[in-house]
Amino acid sequence: MNNDKIWLSSPHMGGTEQKFVNEAFDTNWVAPLGPNVTGLEQDLESYLQQDSNVAALSSGTAAIHLGLILLGVQAGDEVICQSMTFSASANPILYLGATPVFIDSETSTWNLCPVALEAAIVDRIAKGKKPKAIIGVHLYGVPYQVEAVHAVAKKYDIPVLEDSAEALGSSYKGQKCGTFGDFGVLSFNGNKIITTSGGGALVTKNLEEKAKAVFFATQSRDNAPHYQHSEIGYNYRMSNICAGIGRGQMEVLDLHVQKRRAMQLFYTELFKDIEGVTVFTVPNDDYFANYWLSSIVVDSQMTNGKTREDLRIYLESKNIESRPLWKPMHLQPIFEKYPYYGTYISEGLFNNGLCLPSGSNLTDADKNRIQTEIRAFFN
Prior knowledge:
Layout: H1 17-26, H2 35-48, E1 53-57, H3 60-70, E2 78-82, H4 91-95, E3 99-103, H5 114-126, E4 133-137, H6 146-155, E5 160-163, E6 171-172, E7 175-176, E8 183-187, E9 200-204, H7 207-217, H8 240-250, H9 253-271, E10 277-279, E11 287-288, E12 294-298, H10 308-317, E13 323-324, E14 340-341, H11 345-352, E15 353-356, H12 364-378
Parallel strand pairs: 2-3, 2-4, 3-14, 4-5, 5-8
Antiparallel strand pairs: 1-9, 6-7, 6-11, 8-9, 10-12, 12-15, 13-15
């Protein structure tokens, strides 16, 4: 049997990326601006709709950082952030000298719990500091409870920075993720649904906000014949070469979403007769998930004591990569001193949950290997 490594989520080229990259070389547009950057932004705007404006940046983290700056977050402010997420959602809060306030998940989408969110806001206001922004995350491409979260945000007049890094191609009631918040964030890291090798984007509501984001992303150069700077700037603009890869990837985005969703169905079928294992699935048809990573929760009390860690180690021994769910931020050494509101939902998911190979480039042979080994483990 072929024992090549089966990756959790690896880059998957569509075939036309090279054409756009070659055009950049042929025309000498090897810079953090150019036709591919402009073209990728236009492609994304057309895809997202909602009159979106997109600024292509060097990473999703850069997009969160600039989004917080545009929302006026400063040193000493507090920013609410979903605890169950990747650290890049929270790191920019600390870049700005602000304080993260972490919120537990709810069980249906594994995302920001609206009840805990409101409790946190009420308590922070009572303590004398109204949060400056809310960072909500569409974990593994499953939309958060959009209406409930935004109702709380509106009630207390707090803007939402929508971290859609894992959710390009997902939607809620037909509206694309990345377009619900005051600002949206996309990521094109190597393991995402599409990749630019490294890169991201900030989604804004108008051209003025996009222009300000690009201004900050290009060292905040004032309009002068010499280099003049009145505000702190950053080197966050996307390379025209990386954007060329992204333009090719946009041509296969819907296909990649389709293939990721097919992997989630594959696992749903595989585990349907295995007691004690639940495949992460959207709550209802209002939610359309790209299922960037297919995930399961293992109840060891129903699997004869077999845990998610036992399964992870077993798969690793068979050269199949899997990974525990994101460790919540409030349990991380760098963040554990900051306020947290909620119970043990996210902690329980981390302790018992596992992400399984989900790439759009997995072959039938790969699926057969995964199926064979998982069945062998649980038998």
